[in-house]
Amino acid sequence: MDERPMFSLDTCVDTFATFVSYIRQTSENPGAAAELAAKRKHDKYKTIKGNGYHFIALSTETCGVWCSEMKQFVKEVGYKMMERTGDPKTPGYFRQTIALNIQRGNAASILGSLPDASPMSEVFYL
């Protein structure tokens, strides 16, 4: 990482979505959807890079696969955190926190797509 101001944008590609299928690409190359999303973010925000900012596209897939740029960024940040704290476990905790937040987002997405279950709420009192 250099001294330029940093701008990052994260996205989580839904590899299970039926309207845009990444199944073929991801079955042949795990992480292909995340890499494609990162490339699209770089193309979309190329003017930011031209204005002296360091742009990082943090792209993941719903199954948790990260793009190579995100892996490198998390590795560097985890190492810097370890230098500051002196705890060699810090990078691992940092990666686990990100992975857990992706899982929480997936759960919220799934629960948000379910129909209202309040008419059947008496089932939970049995």
Brief summary:
By secondary structure, the protein is α+β, with helices and mostly antiparallel strands. It has five helices and two strands. It has helices at residues 23-28, 32-44, 46-50, 68-85, 90-113; strands at residues 6-13, 54-61.
Spell out the key features of this protein.
126 residues, 5 helices, 2 strands
Tell me the radius of gyration: 18 Å
Structural classification: alpha+beta
Shape field: globular
* Cross-sheet strand order for the largest sheet: 1-2
Order of helices and strands: EHHHEHH
Strand coverage percent: 5-15%
Largest sheet: 2 strands, parallel
Q: How many distinct helices?
A: 5
How many β strands by DSSP? 2
Helicity range: 40-55%
Low-confidence stretches: none
Cα separation of the termini: 56 Å
Q: Mean pLDDT, nearest integer?
A: 84
Overall tally of structural domains? 1
Protein model, in words:
The chain is of the alpha+beta class and 126 residues long. The protein has one domain (6-114). The chain contains five helices and two strands. Strands 1-2 form a two-stranded parallel ribbon. Helix 4 (68-85) crosses helix 5 (90-113).
Helix and strand arrangement:
Blueprint: E1 6-13, H1 23-28, H2 32-44, H3 46-50, E2 54-61, H4 68-85, H5 90-113
Parallel strand pairs: 1-2
Helix pairs in contact: 4-5
